[in-house]
Amino acid sequence: MKKHNFNAGPSILPREVIEETAKAVLDFNGSGLSIMEISHRAKDFQPVVDEAVALFKELLNIPEGYSVLFLGGGASLEFCMIPYNFLEKKAAYLNTGVWAKKAMKEAKAFGEVVEVASSAEATYTYIPKDYEIPADVDYFHITTNNTIYGTEIKEDLNVNVPMIADMSSDIFSRPIDVSKYICIYGGAQKNLAPAGVTFVIVKNECVGKVSRYIPTMLNYQTHIDGGSMFNTPPVLPIYAALLTLRWIKAQGGVKEMERRAIEKADMLYGEIDRNKLFVGTAKPEDRSRMNICFVMAPEYKELEADFLKFATERGMVGIKGHRSVGGFRASCYNAMPKESVQALIDCMQEFEKLHVK
Q: What is the pTM for the complete model shown?
């Protein structure tokens, strides 16, 4: 039976990326060695990093003066590295969910943190709007897509202070104006690569402004100067990221990824809104294209476990909602084919026929 992978992360990757990575695990580039055992300083591996950086810049139209870094530690380490490198006195954060809250917690160790707005009172089911950002902050931090709650900021905000974004789960799903940010970062295990590598896009001239000492490994300048090679980088995930970037380009680039994301999201949200058994959880205007969250309608709440079992038996993988909110979550990242979304819709319709007379 075909499996349809709706996992929130680590998540679906293009099949050809998985197959090519598997080949490199056995023999990288005809070297007779696995990519897992070659030196990151080997002449065969430097071109991997160089091409991955070049494709990042090409696909996202990154302007001059920015560096693309491949680091370890996940986005969770970046929650600390961001204030270490950019927070001198005060920073502003938009609280849209668990990950934004965790980023704020780390920043409070380095200076004053202003929470400009929060949707916590509504279980983060919407993106706050009409808030004011203090003019004297060192930066304003946002989390563009909230995997747990299914909300997303789908357009670049216009603000009058330096902006930083955690784009772990929606990078490469839409065009972005990188010039509006001094730093964009994310864990790669959603739209880019297997877990183990973190991407950072950083504006070079904004690094090195804080007065504090920054430990060597936590200093962005270290990794800019070292070309992500200061210490041993996560070689295998970087190679898989390169293959995914090639795949995105071959498919038509980020605009095509956005077109597909809109198409898949519209299909599934359309069924959620039509089907008597299900209700979407996020406010319609803030619904994520990447993580589509829904629950059973109140009068059918007792069918939740039954539907999960029903869907699992038909090949749906990873649709159980996050433990903190329950219900269901269908993660439709770039590599998710439209056919899998349709398979889930068929499943929902079949279940409805069994239970709605």
A: 0.98
Q: How far apart are CA 85 and CA 230, in angstroms?
A: 17
Q: Judge whether 247 counts as a catalytic residue.
A: no
Task: Return the pLDDT at 42.
Answer: 81
Instruction: Give the C-alpha separation, 334 to 302, whole Å.
Output: 33
Q: Does 190 qualify as catalytic in the annotation? A: yes
What are the pLDDT digits (tens) for 30-43? 999 999 999 998 88
Could you tell me which of 97, 105, 156, 104 has the C-alpha nearest to residue 128? 97
| 142-169 per-position pLDDT tens digit | 999 999 999 999 999 999 999 999 999 9
Q: Which residue has the tokens 């696995």?
A: 34
Cβ count within 10 A of residue 41:
9
Residue 227 DSSP SS3: coil
Structural domains of the chain, with CATH: 15-251 (3.40.640.10), 252-355 (3.90.1150.10)
Catalytic one of 138, 166, 170, 286: 166
- The SS3 assignment for 164 reads strand
Is 166 catalytic? The answer is yes
